Amino acid sequence: MKEIFDPMVLLTALGVLVAAIGVFVTYLQYDKTAAKSPKIDPQIIQLDYQSSITNLAHPGMGLTGSLTQIGQQINHNYGLTESQLQDLIKNVIKTLPNENEASQKLEKYIRLASEYKELAEKNLAGNKLAQEAQEAVTGGRLDEALALYDQSEAAWAELGEQAKAFQAEEYFEAAKILEFQCKYPPALLKIQAALQLAPNRWEFNNLWGVLLVDTVDYQGAIQAFQTAQTQLPNPQGVEAASLFNNLGNAWSELGEYAKAIEFYDQALPIFKKALGPEHVSVAQTYNNLGTAWSDLGEYAKAIEFYDQALPIYKKALGPEHVYVASTYNNLGLAWAARGEYSKAIEFYDQALPIYKKALGPEHVYVAQTYNNLGTAWSDLGEYAKAIEFYDQALSIFKKALGPEHVSVAQTYNNLGNAWRNLGKYSKAIEFYDQALPIYKKALGPDHVYIAQTYNNLGIAWRNLGEYAKAIEFYEKDLKITLKALGTEHVSMAQTYNNLGTAWSDLGEYSKAIEFYEKALSIFKKALGPEHDYLAQTYSNLGTAWSELGEYAKAIEFYNQALPIFKKALGPDHVSVAQTYSNLGTAWSELGEYSKAIEFYNQALPIFKKALGPEHVYLAKTYNNLGLAWEARGEYAKAIEFYDQALSIYKKALGLDHPDIAGTSLNLALAYEAQSERQKALVYAQQGMAIFEKNFAQLNPNHPDLLKARRVLAHIEGSTL
What we know:
Blueprint: H1 7-21, H2 25-30, H3 42-45, H4 49-55, H5 62-74, H6 82-94, H7 99-122, H8 124-138, H9 142-157, H10 164-180, H11 184-197, H12 202-214, H13 218-230, H14 238-253, H15 257-275, H16 280-295, H17 299-317, H18 322-337, H19 341-359, H20 364-379, H21 383-401, H22 406-421, H23 425-443, H24 448-463, H25 467-485, H26 490-505, H27 509-527, H28 532-547, H29 551-569, H30 574-589, H31 593-611, H32 616-631, H33 635-653, H34 658-673, H35 677-695, H36 703-715
């Protein structure tokens, strides 16, 4: 027999029976620290507790007799058979040390019921408020629910020490709502208040951990989840599996994806054993595993896990459940990471109508899917279409969540990226500047989202030729990322990569290489030797060495990048094509123009297949082919490629993008080489006008603007 010394433990054991048949509802309804009960029929609350419990159950009857008498008195509310009732009683008695001791403790239990009678009567109003709050939650009226929970908590507070467990419960319920609304500071205050009143509730520590993840205190979150683990009623139950999942999420946020997978792998068999292989919790764990493998760059493996989650959700919840839509979204993200943007859009398009039907056309999940669609269309070079989706998302987020919600800020960031890709750098900066104060107010000054926005501002200022200003923003990004995530997080490596690019733009190629090598070391340790982030860093190193005139060394790095990209992303990914293009440029610089043209021609069909015939990457490749053919003295052929590039640029980016100016200058020089000075002059003037419009006011010494002036002066037969 299992010995029970603490009377409260005994009460919890008795609660197994009580929860099943509704006996002793006073205690269970109002002391939730002792046991969990199902929803109690309101009729039971109206029972005469003094007669039904204290008169019908007493130690002289013995434990079995007392429990039987209590059970029979109110069993009509539940309809248990006599044999079911007796089986339940026997199961409870088996957990007790002996009947005499149990009877003595039952007497104390009965006295507690009498003491709680007055408490129950006084708090019928408070309990009603809590029930109304729950109904408001079910109906999606979250602000109303919060107000009701506040009223209910105040009612419990008036009763003092006796009611602190119920007061804590209302704090907990309010914290859950606030967490869902991404209102993290008030949510933290609520759950802290709950923990002060009831520090041993695993659910409270679990939510505390979730909120610490939300606010980027991942180490603190891990400690909270570990504390919750020590408070679990069953260390091998579904609650334990849920905590394994949460621990996995926290480690994943720290960039420890392999460690996260270990925790998800611990959760999975528990869920399967306890709930069956087709339970939604199993599917959720498959989803978590998919995300972790995706973060490791194992997108094919991620897709396998998402594909395992999908049929479970469909069978358990139906084909139009939001979890099905969420899995479609995850699949879209994984396919997008593999460069299959059209396939990603197919999945987002499947998610969208489900969300609209299940949640309404103005739900935040609809907005998030619009954001995903915008990003996919942006990756396909359809920036104007992307902006349309981002604008739809922005409108919904503002209406549903308010103008200062983090999702609004995220959409401003996305809009900034799209406008930046269109060459509208000043407009991009405007959007980033709108995102920044929202993030600071909602998340505090040291959140990683602020770091990401600083990073975006750095890129935009770099595009404007303000390299020193770009570096300032990258260094702000670096400082926050270091504080929030530590020295070896992948986000640190990404920032090092960006700093390398900025220093490269300033002509400080040796300094750029130092930053790329720091990034390389982190990526290798965090993600392994075959992640596409590693390949991208090899590619960046190749470009830096190329700028130093070390073309052979550059080719070595591009050749290291190429097989990783092929293995991680597939042979038809845009990153593979980009590496072919980089190899072409390096060989061109070595005077191997035929070899360069071979690489450009390998890049071309991949770009066409992956991105369509009118993407800017295709235009860049046509431009490079033009340069290679021009270097071979084939000016007419070069002009053909420049014309193709120019046509795509104008359609994709508008008439004032700097890339159009660059190709116009190339055409000017090609026509000048053919002694067609009038045409050359027209293109040189066009290029000059575009660069003047983009850079003259913001940075009159931008290198592209200075180059345009030199070309125009050369063609006009004069020098500046």
